[in-house]
Amino acid sequence: MANQSFLKNLVNFVTSWTNRQRIFAWRALDMLAIFVASFVSYIILYDIISVRPIQWAIFILLASTIYFVVLHLFKVDQRISRYSSLLDFINVFVSQFVSNITAGLALSLLMDSFSLRFVVITALFASVFSTFYRIIWRGVYTSQSLARFQIEIEDMATKNVLVIGAGDGGSLFVQSYKRHPEGLNVVGILDKDENKIGTNISGVPVLGSDEELVEIAQQHDVDEIIIAIPSLKPEAYERILTIANDIDVPVFKMPSVEKVLQGKHQQKDMKKVEITDLLGRQEIELDESQLRQEIEGKVILITGAGGSIGSEIARQVSKFNPLKLILLGHGENSIYLIYHELIKKPGMMTQYIPVIADVQHYDRLLEVFKEHKPDIVYHAAAHKHVPLMEVNPIEALKNNVYGSYRVAKAVDAAGVRKMVMISTDKAVNPPNVMGATKRIAELLVIGMNKKSDSIFCAVRFGNVLGSRGSVIPVFEKQIAAGGPVTVTDFRMTRYFMTIPEASRLVVFAGAFAEGSEVFVLNMGEPVKILDLAKKLILLSGFSEAEIPIVESGIRPGEKLYEELLTSSELVDKQLDENIFIGQVIDQPIEETLAFVESVKDEPSGELKKELVRYANESHIIEKDDEETIIIPDEAEIVDEAE
C-alpha cells in the first residue's frame, strides 16, 4: 500500500513538470544512458578490447555534446509529448545512434587503438535506453490523463437528468442529446399534457406530469432537472424550484438554441434559473435596425466605462462597429478589465482606447475630447449609492453635479455632436442627496442645449438587475451567510430592468435624441422587495424557515415609492410602445450654477438640506396642479459607475 502511494506521488510529481524541466531531465538521463551503455559495452567486450579510462571519458563527453547539438538543431526534444508518434521516437533513436557513431569515428581517427565494435554496441544500447524511457514517460502521462478523463466521464455519466417539457424546446434538446450524449443520461421527460404521457421523444419516454416530479425523481435517482420550456411562467418556475429544493435536486435551464443545435449540452453549458425568470418580466428588445448607421464608423466615448452600466454600454456599442471606442474611467482596474474583454472579441474592427481620467477635471476632459474627437459621449460616471451620498454630500456634489457639467462643457468646447447623460428616477422629487445631485446635473446638462450646437439629453431608469450596487448582491451575501435577509420596509415596491436593457436604452436614446429629452423605459409591473427576497431565497435552494426575512426600517434618503416623470415633464411623444419621452423643465444654467456655488462650502447637514430643497423646487411650475407619475424605482442602492 505504501509502495503504491509512493509510486502514485512519484508519477504525479513527474507529470507535473514544465516543458523546460522535462527537457533538462531528459538530457541528464541521455548522458546517463551513454555512460551506462558504454559501461555495458565494456563489460561485454572486456576480453576482446582494451579501452583506457581517458578514452572512455572523452567518448562520453564528445558523444553527449554532438547528441545535444543535434537535439537542439532539429528540436527533437520538443516533439516528445503525450501526443508523440512512432516517428518522433525513431528520431530520438537515430539522433542518439548517429551521435555515438560520429563521436566514435572521430576518436578512432585520433586514437589508433580505439575500438569501433565498442562504439557500435554503445551507440545501439544508448539509443535504446534514450528511446525507452521517453516511451515509458509518454505511457505514464497518457495513462494518468486517461484515468482522470475516465473519472470525469464516470462522474458526468452518473448524473441522471430529468427534462421538464415535451414541447419544441424539450424535443430539440432530447434530439440533440441523442446525437451528442456526452455527460448526460436523460432518464425521462415530464409534461403537463396528458396526451404526451406514455409516448417518447427520440427514444426517451415521457414518464408523467410535473406534478409527479418527486416520485419520478426518486424512482430514477435523478441528479439534475433541466427545464426545456422557454416560455415557462414565473409561478411554474417557483413551484418546480420549491419541489426540487425539498428533494435536494438542482434545477437548470436548457442551453441556448444555438448551443443545443451544436450539441453543446454538458453540465457547464446548462444555464441557472435566474431571478429574471421568477420576476416574470420579459426583457425588452428594442429595434436596433437604425442604430448601426448612427454608430458604425463613428468615434464613441463612454465615461464611467468600467462600471456595470458603462461597461455594458461599451459591449452594446461595440456590436455596431464604431471606428473608435474611448473607455474613460477613474478606476484603472475596472477600465483594464473591460478594455481586455473587448479587445479579445473575434473579428474586431474597432479601436479600443482606455483612458484614465476624472470627470471633475475639465482640462483633462477637454484634452481627451480634442484628441479623439468623439461623435457621441455617453456619460455614465457618477456616485449613485443613496446611503453613502447621504453622509458624503460634498462628494455627490463634486462628482454628480460638477463632474456632469464639466463633461457637458467639454462636449460643447470640443464640438461633440451629442451627449447622453445617464440619470435615475430618484432625480424626480428627490428626498435624498444622490437624487438631488442627479436632478441638478440634469438641469445643467440639458440646459446646455440653449448654449451649444451640440445635442444634450438624459436617460432615466430604476433598479438594474445584476449591477454591482443593486440590492440583489446584498441579499445574496446575506443568504450565503445563513441570513437573515434584511428588507428596509415590507411595503416597498420597485420596478426592475436588466443591465443590457438599461444599456440598450442609453444607446437608443443617443441615436434618436434631438435635444432636451428625458428618455424613460417602460419597465413593466412593480415588484415588492419582500417578494424579491423570497424569490432569491428559493433560488438559493433554501426555504424561508431556513433563511428568515426581517424588516430593518427605511434608511436616510429612501422612499417607499419613486416617481419617474412629473406631469409637467410629460410630452405627447414616444419613440415606441416601450420608450417614453419627457421634457426637463427649462431653467437657466446661470441660475443653477449660482445656487451650486453658493452652497458648495456649506457644512454637510446644511448642504444636504439645500440640495434637496433646490432639486424639488426645480420641478415646480404650478404647484397646486402638480401631479406625478408614480413608478417605483430601485430597492436600496443602485449601480455605481466609475
Keywords:
642 residues; 9-stranded mixed β-sheet; 24 strands; disordered C terminus; alpha/beta; 7-stranded mixed β-sheet
What would you note in describing this structure?
Helices cover 49% and strands 16% of the residues. The longest helix is centred in the first third of the chain and has 42 residues, at 116-157. Residues 566-571 and 620-642 have low confidence and may be disordered. Strand 9 (324-329), helix 13 and strand 10 (351-356) form a beta-alpha-beta unit. It has 22 helices and 24 strands. By secondary structure, the protein is an alpha/beta fold. The strands form six sheets. Strands 10-9-8-11-12-13-18-23-22 form a nine-stranded mixed β-sheet, with helices on both faces. A seven-stranded mixed β-sheet has the order 3-4-2-1-5-6-7.
- SSE-based structural type: alpha/beta
Low-confidence segments:
566-571, 620-642
Strand segment tally: 24
- Helical residue percent band: 40-55%
Multimerization state: single chain
Shape: extended
Major sheet summary line: 9 strands, mixed
What Rg is obtained from the alpha carbons, in whole angstroms? 35 Å
Strand order of the largest sheet: 10-9-8-11-12-13-18-23-22
- Cα distance, first to last residue? 58 Å
Report mean pLDDT, rounded to a whole number: 77
Distinct helical segment count = 22
Q: Give the amount of beta strand, in percent.
A: 15-25%
